[in-house]
Design goal:
- This protein is an alpha/beta fold.
- It has one domain: TIM Barrel, CATH 3.20.20.
- Helix content is 45%, strand content 15%.
- The protein is built from nine helices and eight strands.
- The chain has an eight-stranded parallel β-barrel, surrounded by five helices.
- The termini are close together.
- The relative contact order is 0.14.
């Protein structure tokens, strides 16, 4: 298992400065945001080319809404994800982290044809993921469905729900990202949920129960890491959290703490 950090957590005016710091801190990868990624592609590629740091993943930032009420919103999301998948593949990353929707349902209720809007959303999402999955397979970067907690979305909250979508899609390049912060809220047993997701987890986010750096809350990361190791997980685990202090002090300390548990 390799450690990565989101770009926004690291001080620096340029990507080159950030990546140099990330390397000094002891990380092996960087997760970049999808916002303005096409415009930043050259800068990121050049910075990575002179460092041992690798791109882990692209996080969101593609615009639109996969389950938006209007067709154009959904088309924008699909187009944006495709664009970021290609860039991610060109930079050697694992994939693009995708939250199907935030908040409550936006697609109109079609009762009595469908008894509830969730059925419509699931059917739409599966068909969208088939389109995206075929493109992802062509370019060589994964669609990473992220379950998030019930206070942020109504649809996919647990690993098993994301896996159900993956199975319905039936394309290898549609897989799951596991986030310890969200799992702490939604999963009854984090290690058991991870083991049940064997073969589907392609990326991991790290944040403690209070969404600060691991070690500042009450999540048992050791048992979670043991579960990941038991399913043969070897990809990146990226920090997505707040930093309670100076990043130049806290981030190297966090790397040391996480390595003691891995």
């Amino acid at each position: 298992m390799k450690l990565a950090v989101q770009e926004n957590l690291v001080p620096g005016r340029t990507m080159d400065e950030k990546i140099r710091r990330i390397e000094d801190y002891g990380f092996e990868g960087i997760e970049v945001w999808g916002n303005n990624l096409p415009q930043r592609f050259k800068e990121i590629k050049e910075a990575l080319s002179i460092s041992r740091i690798k791109l882990s993943t692209v996080c969101s930032g593609y615009g639109g809404d996969l389950l938006g009420a209007e067709r154009r919103e959904r088309e924008i999301a699909i187009e944006g994800i495709k664009e970021r998948l290609k860039i991610c593949a060109d930079l050697g990353g694992v994939g693009v982290i995708t939250v199907p929707t935030f908040g409550g349902p936006k697609i109109p209720d079609l009762y009595p044809w469908y008894p509830n809007v969730r059925e419509i959303e699931e059917k739409v999402l599966i068909e969208e993921c088939k389109v995206l999955g075929r493109y992802a397979e062509d370019v060589g970067a994964y669609i990473l469905l992220e379950p998030i907690n019930r206070y942020e979305t109504h649809l996919i909250n647990r690993l098993e729900q994301a896996i159900e979508v993956c199975r319905a899609v039936g394309i290898e390049y549609v897989r799951v990202m596991a986030d310890f912060f969200h799992m702490n809220i939604e999963e009854a047993n984090i290690p058991e949920s991870i083991r049940a997701a064997d073969g589907y987890i392609m990326h991991v986010h790290l944040a403690d129960s209070n969404r600060l750096l691991p070690g500042y809350g009450h999540i048992d990361f050791k048992s979670g890491f043991e579960a990941l190791r038991s399913i043969g997980y070897k990809n990146f685990m990226a920090l997505e959290c707040g930093i309670p202090g100076d990043p130049d002090i806290e981030l190297p300390k966090c790397v040391k703490y996480l390595r003691s548990l891995i």
